[in-house]
Specification:
- By secondary structure, this protein is an all-alpha fold.
- The protein is globular and about 55 Å long.
Length: 404
């Protein structure tokens, strides 16, 4: 007589232990996919320039519109996530992003239509402000920094777009938009089933405007914004400008410059969770301080215009490691010093400032090179900013305590 072996029932504790990692995985994949969509125009901008007869400024403006809208859009989306939860917001924003992705197909022959679609495409850049409060709520403080760092690796979606979008387009002009649109539809359906908000989370009852006002009135919001504008802003700035810098100063081919710039981006993606992991073991303000100090020192080295191999390559990659680490540790700091019900609102503002912080440095670098025929002053200005962030993080941010 055979006795059936009973399987142990699925306990709430077991489900609870799996839920943080399920939500982290879904949030990271969604972040990467929506960021790929957010960056669909930039890799194809040369084609649009030729097709539509655009000037360099018009081409740059077309690329900038979704980035600027996506950065600013994080502010209301973060506040809405505090109110309605990531279970609603992640599938909703992912599904809505499908619309501008597919509209890129009929809009491709009109500059005005492309600008309008690019504005809507900014939706894809807002998911950062959904994922941070979701991940933050599911993980205990001892693991929160590393978890947020893992989630932050989803910013690699921009690099994925830069690499794969033009290659997919070789098999059909419209194929990249169909592929990304289809992937977003599948993701939105899965997210609606698999993403869950943490039970018992505090839901604010006041208005969106009031919550944003409260987040804006927190001194720590703007302190964190400044630090993130240096760390993540530096990453965005180099992502945008590094290929131009390498081509102009070191006379590299476009392909070689693009490959080296991709290496810089990869280092920042890898070091972001390292910054979070270190912040779980050391105060995140100290990690931020040391990371920005490293970036400042490497910027000084690069200001002396060393040969690309090995000096310039080592300096730029070490700078990438410092900026990536700082980006991870700043959001570990957000989770440590921000009241839980306001994490989404504060994240929205901080994330917006980080994105916007990346668009001033390329303009400054270009203007300095035009005036002085050298990038040295630009790198020295970067070192000054990073050093100021280093001192402020160490001197002020270590002493802040969260008031729930």
């Amino acid at each position: 007589m055979h006795t059936a072996v009973k399987q142990p029932p699925s306990t709430p504790e077991a489900e609870e232990s799996a839920a943080p990692y399920r939500n982290l995985a879904m949030a990271t994949v969604g972040f990467a996919l929506t960021f790929w969509a957010w960056n669909l125009i930039a890799p194809m901008s040369a084609d649009y320039k030729d097709r539509l007869g655009l000037s360099s400024f018009e081409q740059s403006f077309l690329v900038a519109v979704p980035v600027l809208v996506g950065s600013l859009g994080r502010i209301p989306v973060g506040a809405l996530t505090d109110k309605y939860g990531a279970r609603l917001m992640f599938p909703l924003i992912s599904a809505l992003t499908v619309v501008p992705v597919l509209l890129l197909i009929p809009a491709k022959n009109s500059y005005g239509a492309m600008l309008a679609v690019g504005f809507l495409l900014g939706l894809g850049g807002t998911t950062f402000a959904i994922g941070v409060p979701l991940v933050n709520s599911w993980f205990q403080p001892a693991k929160r920094g590393f978890a947020l760092g893992i989630f932050g690796m989803g910013m690699g979606g921009v690099a994925l777009s830069g690499y794969f979008t033009p290659r997919i387009a070789k098999h059909g002009d419209n194929l990249p938009f169909l592929v990304v649109g289809g992937a977003l539809v599948v993701y939105a359906l899965l997210a609606a089933v698999l993403i869950t908000d943490r039970p018992g989370r505090k839901i604010p009852t006041d208005t969106l405007a009031h919550r944003l006002g409260e987040a804006g009135n927190l001194r720590v919001t703007w302190e964190l914004s400044a630090l993130y504008a240096i760390g993540f802003g530096g990453i965005v700035a180099f992502g945008v400008y590094l290929p131009t810098y390498l081509k102009t100063w070191y006379d590299l081919s476009p392909t070689d410059a693009g490959t080296r710039a991709a290496g810089f981006a990869l280092v920042t993606v890898v070091f972001r969770p390292i910054g979070g992991w270190l912040s779980d073991r050391i105060h995140p303000a100290l990690v931020t301080s040391v990371a920005l100090l490293a970036a400042a020192l490497m910027a000084i080295v690069q200001a002396f215009e060393p040969p690309l191999v090995p000096g310039g390559t080592i300096a730029l990659l070490c700078m990438a490691a410092g900026l990536g680490t700082a980006s991870g540790s700043v959001f570990a700091l957000v989770s440590q010093v921000t009241p839980q019900p306001k994490v989404g609102s504060v994240t929205g503002i901080v994330g917006a400032m980080g994105g916007l912080g990346g668009f001033v440095p390329p303009l400054v670098m270009g203007a300095i090179f035009s005036a002085k025929d050298s990038y040295s002053i630009g790198f020295m200005l970067l070192s000054d900013l990073a050093l100021a962030g280093c001192v402020y993080a160490y001197g002020r941010m270590r002493s802040i305590q969260r008031d729930d």
